[in-house]
Amino acid sequence: MKAVLATDLSAASEATIENETGLACLGRIGIEEINLVTVVPSNVHAGMPGIDFEKRRRKALGRYEQVIEGAGFDVETHVVRGTPHRRIRGIAETIGASLTVVGSRGKSPLENRVIGSTARNLSRTTVTPLLVNRIERETDEPSMVRKHLFQRMLYATDFSKNAEQAFEAFSYLRHAAQEATLVHVKTPKDPGLPEGEDPEAQLAELAGQLQEWGLETRTEIRQGDPSDEILAAEAEYEPTTTLVGSRGHSRLRRLLLGSVSEDLVARANGNVMLVPPERTA
User: Fold this and answer.
1) Which CATH number fits domain 152-275: 3.40.50.620, 3.40.50.2000, 3.30.565.10, 3.40.50.720?
2) Which of 177, 195, 206, 210 is the most exposed place for a label (fewest CB within 10 A)?
3) pTM for the whole structure
4) Helices 259-267, 226-237: inter-axial angle, 10-degree rounding
5) Radius of gyration of the chain (CA)
6) Lowest mean pLDDT segment, chosen from 56-65, 69-78, 94-103, 251-260
7) Other C-beta atoms within 10 Å of 100: how many?
8) pLDDT band at 182; cut points 50, 70, 90
C-alpha cells in the first residue's frame, strides 16, 4: 500500500513526519511506500530575486526522507507547483495511493496553510481515504495530539453505501486498533430507516464483525444534529481517530454531507479519517 504525506514544511508538518509512533501505525496497517508531497502555491513567483523555492523545498524534504526511510518505508518525494489540494489529490490518484495524510495545523513561511482551505478542500474532493492528523495548536513546538493513530476508533454511520465502505477500512485498520465505538445519529427530521431495519441491530452486527477481529467494541444511538453529536461522542470516548464516510444520505442533508464532514475536520479534537465514495467507471 502507498500513502501520500503532504507537508508545507512547517513545524506542525514536521511533528507528523517525525512521530515514530505514528509512522509505526502506518506500517501496521500495510503502508509500505510514503510519497512526500510539498506544493509551491501558484501565487508564489518562481522568479523572486535570490530565492529558489523548489530547490529549498527539495533540500528540506531530504531530511524528512531520511527519517521515513529509517522507519522502514520506501520513499518518493514530489515538489510541485499549483493549487495545493488539487496537486496533492492528483498525485494520490496518479500513484494509486491507499491513503492521503495531511496535518491539521500548519503555516509555512510562504503563507501556505496545509490546514484551513487545503484540508477542507481535500475533505470535499479527495479520491482516496484522507487522514487529517490533528496537531497541537498555539505552540511553537507542536506535537501530535493523538500519537497512536488508530488505537481507539470512533466510527459514525448513517448506514449509507459510503458509510459501509468506510467500515470496510477496518479490514486493515484493525491491525493497529484495539477498540472501536460505533455511533448512529438520528436527526429530528430523519424519517428513519426502511421498515424492518433496526439501527441497534445493525450496529450490533457491525460490532460483531469487529469483535471477531479481536477489537473491544461498544455501540451507541444518539439523537440530534449529526456533527454536534459525533463531536460529543468524540469528547466522551476520546478516540484517537474518528472514521466516517465523506458522503451520506443527501436527501436528508444529514450525516457526513458536505458541511458535516467539514465540521469534523475543523472541530474534532483528534484525528479524522474520511473515506470517499467508491468511484465508478
Assistant:
1) 3.40.50.620
2) 195
3) 0.83
4) 30
5) 19
6) 251-260
7) 25
8) very high
